[in-house]
Structures are given as structure tokens and as C-alpha cells.
């Protein structure tokens, strides 16, 4: 007991001395806040060191770790008694549980039991590791980011997949940590010019925040000047107005000159929003995602904040991950899955996830390419989602191919920046009557209010350059030219609002690029302005 008291004294003595000095210098922060922050940071670093050790051990013996993850899933399987509960033999497991596509599982189980929007599946070891190790890595790469008052979250959802208790709440977040009103969160962030990190649930949500900031800037400035909430800050309101008058490019750094990094959670369909943010509002800032979240759980950890965005370690713990090889861009249904240590560098695989909630070997549709290794586990880059493929004549235009073609086309539209897009096969909207089937493409742009016919035609030319199969179908007249429509502000925000309450929606929300339901496509169709 005496040794423990001495240890606590040694732990608290440095911050107490520093707090006394700060108080003598009339520092703004109270000694209690600083003490809480120091102790919380010590606790978090200790927990992160423990998780780092666990990750090292599990990735050094990835095969054994995956056996343990499978055993964990089988032992905690919900529903009827599982005949495999006492077995961890991979061959037996594969024979008893055939592969199932995520869409099939949702249809068969009716209420999205595999991918419930309010699922607690994120609160597993991978989520905890992503949060703890991500926070420590972020603070190492960008010192003072987690200092008191250094971070603000501007969306109700958090980019950190594991909800930490007291230690995180004491680590310098500006504003209420559990606030649900996006407007209140943004106001609190705007009142704090010394921010070093900006957080949002996903990049798409952050894009909505900045678009809304530009649209409602005067209203927000008036609220800050009037002191709603908090003390009146007329000087800060004037700074906001001046920053907005200079346009969107570099707006974040004008509002928060010390800002270093933007933190969002990576999920399907976010790359376009990251590109738009980096080119406009968040120009000059680094982006960091602590994890890649797919429907069913955290499947990738990011441990390298200063490395190129989009590299993730596939951890060997629960949920149980298998890799289904791809061959020549098509899925080989007969190909057996491989475990993480068997992944080959340069090859592409579809992720297969098994968790205890449904005990289904679910093909997620997320395709990854192995680009390296961390001990015995693969480091991957996410390439595309198989469920986001366009096909009106069997051409199978993948998400990555279409996005690249659209990006090249928009690059030829003077002054235009792509914010968002969605695609629909013409049969969904019955728009191919009297003409060949084609793609209906809805785009949200910055810097361009009308689309000329010449601009619209450029997308079809870029698609033909990107896909030989599409080009041959266009040459024969089997497929008509892609039809491009410009939608007004708020169109995609309305689409996301409609997606949120759907029972089969994954959490966090992936951004669909191909819409399969007429009512969703009509949300964009009703908001076409050009």
C-alpha cells in the first residue's frame, strides 16, 4: 500500500507543480482540468501500450489468433444451438457454413440481423485497438492535438469506433461530448480558434458540415456575436464573416490557423468526399482515419497517421476474417477462402466476415489489395465494392472504374469540383423506353451551375476510354450514352437522411454510389437543376 501511495504521488507531483506555475501566470485552464487531462493521458497511454503488446503477439502468431477468434465466435453464437460450438477446425467450419452474400442474408433474415444499424458489434477488440492505438499514434504524429481545448467534433457521430469512458472525455475535447445537435457542435467549434484537430463521423458528414457552414454563415456569426451559447464574441463573429467572404478554398485554416489534421472514420464511398474536402475547405490539412469500418465491424486498423491514407492492417482477432480470392476482376465462387497469413502481396480479395451475432460467413463485397505485411498479417488498400457495380448489358462497370472516369470528366469541366455522385441503371427509373439502356448519373458540383451538352458527353467518352467492354457495347448501340444530371444543394444530404432509418443500412453508413431502389433514385431526380 505504501509503495502504491508513493507511485501515485510521483505520478501526480509533476502535473501539480506545472499547474501551480500555470496558475501563477494567470493561465486560462483551471488546475482541475489540467490535472484531469494529465491523469487521463497517462491512463490512455498505459492502455494503448497493453493493446499494442496484444496486437504484436496476435499478429506474430496470426494463424493461432484466428483459431481463437473463430472459437470466440462459435462459443458466443446467438440463436439455436450451434453444432460447431465446440469445434475450431477450419475445414469443418467451411463445410457447415457456406458463403453468403450480405444482400442475401438481409433478404432471408428480413430485419438485417447481420448488419443492424444499432449493433454493438463495433465494441470489440479491433475497435478498442483502433481507438487506443490511433489516439496515441495521432498525438505522436501531431503533438498537442490532444492538449486541452485542441480537438472539436462537429458531427453527432464520432470517428473513434470504440466509445471510451472517462479518459477520453477528459482529453481536451471542445464542447459537450454527447451532444446530438450538429448545429450546437459546429457553433462550439467555431467559438474556439485554437483548434488543432477537427473530428467528424465520416468524410461525407464533414462535407455536409462545410456546405451548411457556407449556406448558414451569417446566422452562425450572429449567434456567436450574441453569445448563443456562451459569452458574446463579436470579434470571433467578424473573423468568421471575413473567412467566409474569401470563399471555400482553405476555409478551415482561416477559421482555425493552428489546425493540423482532420479525423474521420473510413467506410465505403468516402474517398470522393475526402478529395473534395482536401481540394477546397480543408486544403493544406492532413486526413487520418483510425479504422476501416465495414458492415458488421471494424475490419482494418490504421497505425500510420503520416502514411498515405487508405492503408489498413487486417487484425486476426474477432470478428473472424477470411479472404476470398478474385481472378481477373471476377469472383470465383469455387475458390476456397484463405486465412490472413496466407494472403499474397499484390493479389485482390473479397472480405468474408463471421461474427457471433448470426454465425454467417458473410461476403461483404469489399475488395482489398494486399500491399504489404505487418508481422504475419496483411496490410491492404480498399479498392472497390462489388455491390456498387453498374451493368445494363452485362458489362459490369466497377465502382473504381466509374469513379476514375467521372473524375477525369469533371476535370475537363471548367471551374468544377465534384462533391458527390450517384448512379442508377435506366431500368430503375424506366428512362430507357424507346432507347437503349444506359446509366443515369446525378452529380453535385462546386463552381459550376449548368452543364452543357459538351460537358455531359465527356463522361461517356471517359467511360469508353476506361472500359473496353463498355466501348464495344456503345459502338454496337447496345448501350446508350450516359445521361448526366446536376442536382441542387442538399440533394445527397436528403438521400442520406432517407437511407439512415432503413433496416438494412450498415453502421456507420456507407455512401452508396449505385442506387437499386426507385424511391431512393427519385430523391435525386426530384432535385435536378440542370
TrEMBL record:
Span of domain GH3: 213-278
GO MF annotation terms: acid-amino acid ligase activity
Keyword annotations from UniProtKB, A to Z: Signal
Family annotation (Pfam families): GH3_C, GH3_M, GH3_N_vert
GH3 C-terminal domain location: 428-498
Domain called GH3 middle: residue spans: 313-385
Range of residues in the leader sequence: 1-19
InterPro entries referenced in this protein's UniProt entry, alphabetically: GH3, GH3_C, GH3_M, GH3_N
Taxonomic source organism: Sus scrofa (Pig)
GO cellular component: cytoplasm
Protein name: GH3 domain containing
Amino acid at each position: 500500500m505504501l509503495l502504491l501511495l508513493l507511485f501515485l504521488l510521483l505520478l501526480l507531483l509533476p502535473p501539480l507543480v506545472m499547474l501551480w506555475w500555470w496558475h501563477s501566470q494567470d493561465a486560462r485552464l483551471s488546475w482541475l482540468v489540467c490535472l484531469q487531462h494529465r491523469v487521463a493521458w497517462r491512463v490512455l497511454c498505459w492502455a494503448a501500450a497493453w493493446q499494442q503488446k496484444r496486437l504484436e503477439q496476435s499478429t506474430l502468431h496470426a494463424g493461432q489468433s484466428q483459431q481463437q477468434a473463430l472459437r470466440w465466435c462459435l462459443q458466443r453464437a446467438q440463436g439455436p444451438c450451434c453444432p460447431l460450438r465446440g469445434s475450431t477446425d477450419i475445414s469443418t467450419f467451411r463445410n457447415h457454413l457456406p458463403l453468403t452474400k450480405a444482400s442475401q442474408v438481409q433478404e432471408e433474415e428480413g430485419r438485417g440481423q447481420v448488419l443492424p444499424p444499432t449493433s454493438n458489434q463495433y465494441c470489440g477488440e479491433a475497435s478498442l485497438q483502433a481507438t487506443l492505438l490511433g489516439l496515441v499514434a495521432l498525438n505522436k504524429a501531431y503533438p498537442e492535438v490532444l492538449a486541452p481545448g485542441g480537438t472539436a467534433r462537429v458531427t453527432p457521430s464520432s470517428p473513434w469506433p470504440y466509445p471510451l469512458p472517462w479518459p477520453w472525455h477528459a482529453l481536451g475535447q471542445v464542447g459537450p461530448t454527447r451532444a446530438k445537435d450538429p448545429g450546437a457542435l459546429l457553433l462550439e467549434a467555431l467559438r474556439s480558434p485554437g483548434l488543432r484537430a477537427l473530428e467528424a463521423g465520416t468524410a461525407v458528414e464533414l462535407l455536409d458540415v462545410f456546405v451548411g457552414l457556407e449556406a448558414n454563415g451569417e446566422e452562425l456569426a450572429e449567434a456567436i456575436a450574441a453569445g448563443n451559447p456562451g459569452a458574446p464574441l463579436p470579434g470571433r463573429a467578424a473573423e468568421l464573416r471575413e473567412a467566409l467572404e474569401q470563399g471555400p478554398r482553405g476555409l478551415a485554416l482561416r477559421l482555425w490557423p493552428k489546425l493540423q489534421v482532420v479525423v474521420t472514420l473510413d467506410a465505403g464511398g468516402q474517398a470522393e468526399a475526402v478529395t473534395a474536402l482536401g481540394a477546397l475547405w480543408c486544403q493544406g490539412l492532413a486526413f487520418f482515419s483510425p479504422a476501416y469500418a465495414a458492415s458488421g465491424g471494424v475490419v482494418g486498423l490504421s497505425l500510420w497517421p503520416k502514411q498515405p491514407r487508405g492503408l489498413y492492417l487486417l487484425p486476426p482477432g474477432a470478428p473472424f476474417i477470411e479472404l476470398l480470392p478474385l481472378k481477373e476482376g471476377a469472383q470465383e465462387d469455387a475458390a476456397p477462402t484463405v486465412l490472413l497469413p496466407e494472403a499474397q502481396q499484390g493479389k485482390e480479395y473479397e472480405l468474408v466476415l463471421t461474427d457471433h451475432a448470426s454465425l454467417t460467413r458473410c461476403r461483404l463485397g469489399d475488395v482489398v489489395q494486399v500491399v504489404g505485411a505487418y508481422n504475419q498479417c496483411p496490410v491492404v488498400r480498399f479498392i472497390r465494392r462489388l455491390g456498387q457495380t453498374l451493368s445494363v448489358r452485362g458489362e459490369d462497370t466497377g465502382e473504381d472504374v466509374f469513379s476514375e472516369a467521372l473524375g477525369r470528366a469533371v476535370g475537363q469541366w471548367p471551374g468544377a469540383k465534384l462533391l458527390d455522385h450517384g448512379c442508377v441503371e435506366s431500368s430503375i427509373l424506366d428512362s430507357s423506353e424507346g432507347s437503349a439502356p444506359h446509366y443515369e448519373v446525378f452529380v453535385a458540383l462546386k463552381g459550376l451551375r449548368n452543364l452543357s451538352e459538351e460537358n455531359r458527353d465527356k463522361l461517356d467518352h471517359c467511360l469508353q476510354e476506361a472500359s473496353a467492354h463498355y466501348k464495344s457495347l456503345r459502338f454496337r448501340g447496345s448501350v446508350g450514352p450516359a445521361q448526366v444530371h446536376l442536382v441542387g444543394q442538399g440533394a445527397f444530404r436528403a438521400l442520406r437522411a432517407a437511407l439512415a432509418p432503413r433496416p438494412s443500412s450498415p453502421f456507420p453508413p456507407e455512401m452508396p454510389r449505385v442506387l437499386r431502389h426507385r424511391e431512393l433514385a427519385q430523391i435525386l431526380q426530384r432535385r435536378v437543376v440542370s
